[in-house]
Sequence to fold (710 residues):
Amino acid sequence: MTDGYFDVRTGVYNSAMPVPGARVYIKKSRGTEYADLPYDPDSDVSETNYEQYTVTGGDGKSGSIRLAAPSVEYSFGQADASGAYYPFDVLVLAEGFVPVFVRGFQVFPGIRSELPLNLEPYVSDLEKDLVKTYIVPQNAAVSTPQREQEYTEGLVTDILSEVVIPSTITVHLGTPSDTSAENVTVPFADYIKNVASSEIFPTWDEEAIRANIYAQISFALNRIYTEWYRSRGYPYDITNSTTVDQSFVDGRNIYDNISRTVDDIFNVFIRKDGNYEPFFARYCDGIRTSCDGLSQWGSQRLAERGYNALAILRNYYGDRIELVSTNNIADSPISYPGTPLSLGSVGQPVLEMQIQLDRIRRDYPAIPEITRLNGRFGSETDSAVRSFQNIFNLNVDGIVGKATWYKISRIYSAVTKLGEITSEGTETFIPDSIPSEILTLGSSGDNTRLLQFILEYLSYFYPTVPDVIVDGYFGENTKNAVIGFQRTFGLEPDGIVGEATWNVLYSVSNEINEAVRQQGDDQRYPGTPLSQGDTGQGVELMKRYYNIIAQYYGELPTVQVNTVFDEAFADAIREFQRNYDLDPDGVIGALTWTRIVEIVNFINNARQRDSSATVPASATVGNYEPYPGITVRRGANGRHVKYIQNALNTINKRDGFKQYIPISGEFDSGTELAVMAYQKRNGLQRSGAVDKVLWDRLMSEADESGDVHP
Fold:
């Protein structure tokens, strides 16, 4: 007898956030026909009936638990296959979450597995007596019904235009005729891991496992590519019925070696030479049922004889079979650079990977901090990568190959809940030095990827900038985004990124970064716009912030603070947007949200800096600084900016406004807002910039009030 190893990972439902402190109870399952036993709430949820107990840590994992397993010999003898593993039950309890009970997770000798459980928070006290129950049936290699699989070639009319590895796949937990069965949507790679763990033994040879996984990937992609179920009006992509599709067991454990293999090859599928679509890879167990396709037990016999995965597949499907990979990964905000990253690597791909790891560590604090997000793969990045690989059951080698890259990408997408480069208002980072390379249609490489990264970031805030795919190639999509950006910011819309466009790209993105960086966690953009009819805490926050601005600058009507986005608030937001050069649509999107938060933070900082709005005493009156010769606007710095700031403070004090601008010499967002407020009060164009006419007016008014010098 050889032990197996088991780990429970707890996460919050519909999120990648871990659940620490969950109590995990394990016991041997009741008999070999455990799947058919009725659920017994008294026995199965009684903590005293369990043999082992542990608690999840900060990463939501229980740690490796050793459990008894049978001899490995049973894994290779079809007659005794039912004894290849031992079944166990697990109960997971966590404060504030619905308890989870899993019957019959399978432990194989010498194999590590993980049970990923998404815990659902209580919505009300009425749910405290509920238990989420999963029943794991026998492995399909032990007992598989005859698959009556339909071959799709020539039978379908709806075919997608390109092969894409989807972000998720929706599985119907029953036969197509069972309309009462539940539909679940899971990440595509997790679906394949579940199918492989349910269909074959993890103790088989690696090449047999790979051959079966290639078939399972291709089978699923064929269902998606041909829209087999969607075209017939079903709201799902595939079923879990082995009579027509593949075995998927909701709530089962996943074997580590299978998980690593899927991470390595999830974007590789079988194709027949001369065809474009993923091959419809029929397969069956080959012992109890047979089919015109791959034999699962037969694949193991061929692997024992030295066949590799491709040779196994060609043995069953013919010599025209080939393995094809695609980098068209729908759930990845950034594409794999093509070569592994490791200690000493430099460039934009390293920077993008560092940014995503830095965000992930907020939910997984066991990942060490990378203090310098600089595009250089140093010792800190190496430690962070190794910690990430350990947490997510990857090969811990510090090398960011395809498996680690896409796992980082998927977890990043999950923790931010959006696929955009900037979600939740998360700031982006770009290198300090502005590239000198001129980019145009057909350009490629790291600078093109950087350009796309910035454009994608800005598209989140400016609807006039189309979003782009960050793939390192300057195609028509990127050109259109460049033109949209250039038109938005008054540049020549030629679609060419030269010095002027680079400078404005950096200036605008840095301004937004600074505004976003000042936002607290409770100020983060929620990810979806707020508009008339919406309700909730986000609406209440925006109403409170809007009133702060209205009262401070005295140029907007106040609104009643509650959680309802009513017509009056929509009108008020339109007025705010008109005042601050935003599209007056009455909707609080990312840009309006960030602008409101930015102004409120400035007001709060100004009040904390000098609540009495004291203006420094003047040394000289009537002889102020001459106009510097250029229009002074946001981003400028120096002595002339101090004069503007001091003049505005003097005028505000004279007019009874308790607005104080720190005399820093930096023409920041606060200075720009103060200039715009002055311009509006005096019926001037709200440009936020100081030209010669405005300069002379400000200095003259400050002179009359007795203070022009900072």
